[in-house]
Amino acid sequence: MTEIAGTRWVITGAAGNIGSALRSALLDRQAVLVSTDIRTMTPLGPHESLASTDLADLPALVELFDGADGVIHLGGIPDEADFHDLAEVNIVGTYHVLEAARRAGVPRVVYASSNRLTGFYPSGAHVTPDMPPRPDGFYGVSKVAGEALCRLYADKFDISTISLRIGSYEQRPGSVREQRTWLSPADAVRAFIAAMTTTEHTAVFYAVSGNTDGWWDLDAGTAIGFTPRDDAAQWGEAEHIDPEVPQGGIYASLAYSTDQMRQERTVR
Fold first, then answer.
1. pTM of the model
2. What is the largest CA-CA distance in the chain?
3. Strand partners for 202
4. CA distance readout (Å), 141 to 7, 29, 40, 83, 118
5. pLDDT, tens digit, 9 for 90 and up, residues 36-48
6. pLDDT tens profile 47-68
């Protein structure tokens, strides 16, 4: 698939910041969209229909995906949470999306993964997508599982799966860490369009702007057609960061995970 115009895509998690911006950009490119979220949305154009389909409802997803050229899976819990919730929504929910795509005959799933999958690598490391995962929390673990499911469905069930490890999506970098991890809104659209239109069957790449002081290798993105045009350096010179500090920053702290645990849960 190399063209957007006239193709039909389902977007899960479509009410979020990235989902809203991507919907607008794709409609401008004449895509036909089915946007779903459990949150309230307003259609952005005449070629967009809305749904409120829970990721837990596999039969409803199969029906929703019928006739689609592809699915962009943005839905899920977007940050650290109790592991049981992350497992139910992010892991089982991603399985449901992939399995629904298989049953509905959808040829491609574009998966919103996260840089937090490698957040325990030190800031002095240059990280490539083929290095072992080092998640900075349980949210990152859920993305490791999601990428593994995507690979399984590509290898075993012949669905094309493209996983984007999304950087810090902001209008401008707002911290020392984001000077390395920033993903501009314009580059985010470029990354998703590359994932939607590449001829590669399966790929994993970092969706991040071309930051002068960035941590992550961009070659995998280049190989599927993603060329970022923005750079955090345009907002000022990057401040020093200890090369031994985890790339996840605060996300790698003990409290960032333990504070989200539901203490009333017991192991039997």
1. 0.96
2. 54
3. 161
4. 33, 34, 29, 9, 10
5. 999 999 999 999 9
6. 999 999 999 999 999 999 999 9
**Pair type for strands 8-12 and 32-36:** parallel
pLDDT in tens, 139-181: 999 999 999 999 999 999 999 999 999 999 999 999 999 999 9
Dihedral Cα 115, 116, 117, 120, nearest 10 deg: 110
* Residue range 87-127, pLDDT digits in tens: 999 999 999 999 999 999 999 999 999 999 999 999 999 99
- Known catalytic residue at 206: no
Write out the chain in H/E/C secondary structure.
CCCCCCCEEEEECCCCHHHHHHHHHHHHCCCEEEEECCCCCCCCCCCEEEECCCCCCHHHHHHHHCCCCEEEECCCCCCCCCHHHHHHHHHHHHHHHHHHHHHHCCCEEEEEEEHHHHCCCECCCCECCCCCCCCCCHHHHHHHHHHHHHHHHHHHHCCEEEEEEECEECCCCCCCCHHHHEECHHHHHHHHHHHHHCCCCEEEEEECCCCCCCCECCHHHHHCCCCCCCCHHHHCCCCCCCCCCECCHHHHCHHHHHCCCCCCCCCC
Q: According to the model, what pLDDT value does residue 62 have?
A: 98
Single-letter amino acid code for the residue at 118: T
Could you tell me the strand order of the sheet in which 108-114 lies? 48-51, 32-36, 8-12, 70-73, 108-114, 160-166, 202-207
Q: Which domains does the chain have, with CATH numbers?
A: 8-258 (3.40.50.720)
Active-site choice (121, 139, 153, 251):
139
**Could you tell me the two tokens for 70?**
């592809």
Rounded-to-integer distance, Cα 53 and Cα 58, Å: 9
